[in-house]
From TrEMBL:
GO terms for cellular component: bacterial-type flagellum; extracellular region. Flagellin is the subunit protein which polymerizes to form the filaments of bacterial flagella. Its main location: secreted. It is found in: Secreted; Bacterial flagellum. Keywords: Bacterial flagellum, Cell projection, Cilium, Flagellum, Secreted. This is Flagellin. Belongs to the bacterial flagellin family. It comes from Paramixta manurensis.
Length: 286
């Protein structure tokens, strides 16, 4: 190797090694500082694309889990209302059975009719005013009441991160049967045994209708519970895959940082030594 003051191969090699070590050191320190292996597309172009898709899916599933909670709360609100409707119907059947007995006087039956009428009013109150989020859910017994309950038509819930993951609940037929059966009770007369016996049959029909709707609500609530459990499992595994791609391995990066710090220091030391070789030229001229 010739001795020259213009070109120093050892100096250039030391500079290149120093630059490489500094670049790797900066990368390791950035990953340790952010906790992410991928901090820009240049770090891993293909990995960034995969991570972006997985992150979008995970975010969508987080919102879908909230959707499921909201949907469950709405259906439970409706089911709770029908539970009270059932309790009222039980009491109305007791009153009808009592009124069917001819041991009652006219005054007795008038008192029974009075309570029966008030229970009818409460049934209308429940059906007309049960709401979720300020929006009415059920169908009014009185056809003259304006407004439409949310559950009178098909209701679609978004239960996943993709457009195909939906669940539709349609209780319109069942609600129609319930209101028809409950409406028949508004004209019930308990002033005699025959009227009371006919009312017993009407109440049984109403109980059957309400039971059918409650069964549908319960089945859909249970389905949402299973959907939420499956969604949580999918999100956990999606986040695990996402972490494998974009999260920094602190043990590896700490080791890389230490190694590159040492390499940078030795490169600087060798650069100093290579620069001193140029001084040997002056000794030849002395």
């Amino acid at each position: 190797m010739s001795l020259s003051i213009f070109t120093s191969a050892s100096s250039m090699a030391s500079v290149n090694a120093l630059n490489k070590s500094n670049n790797l050191l900066s990368t390791a320190m950035e990953r340790l500082g952010t906790g992410k292996r991928i901090n820009s597309a240049a770090d891993d172009a293909a990995g960034l694309q995969i991570a972006t898709r997985l992150q979008g899916q995970s975010n969508g599933m987080t919102v879908a889990k909230r959707n499921i909670s909201d949907a469950t709360a709405m259906l439970q609100t409706a089911e709770g209302s029908f539970d009270e409707v059932t309790n009222i119907l039980y009491r109305m059947k007791d009153l009808s059975t009592q009124a069917a007995n001819d041991t009652n006087t006219k005054d007795d039956r008038d008192s029974i009719q009075s309570e029966f009428d008030e229970l009818n009013n409460e049934l209308e109150n429940i059906m007309s005013n049960t709401s979720y989020g300020g929006e009415k859910l059920l169908k009014s017994i009185d056809s003259g009441v304006s407004g439409k309950g949310k559950l009178e038509g098909a209701v679609t819930f978004q239960i996943g991160s993709s457009s195909k993951e939906t669940m539709t609940v349609n209780l319109s037929g069942g609600l129609g049967n319930v209101t028809t059966a409950l409406n028949a009770l508004t004209s019930a007369k308990l002033s005699n045994a025959s009227g009371a016996n006919a009312t017993i049959n009407s109440i049984q029909a109403a109980l059957d209708s309400v039971g059918s709707v409650r069964s549908s609500l319960g089945a859909n609530i249970n389905r949402l519970g299973h959907t939420a459990a499956n969604l949580a499992n999918m999100q956990d595994n999606t986040n695990l895959a996402l972490g494998n791609i974009q999260d920094a391995d602190f043990a590896t990066e700490a080791s890389n940082m230490t190694r590159n710090q040492m390499l940078a220091q030795t490169s600087m030391s060798m650069l100093k030594q290579s620069n001193s070789m140029s001084g040997m030229v002056m000794s030849l001229l002395g």
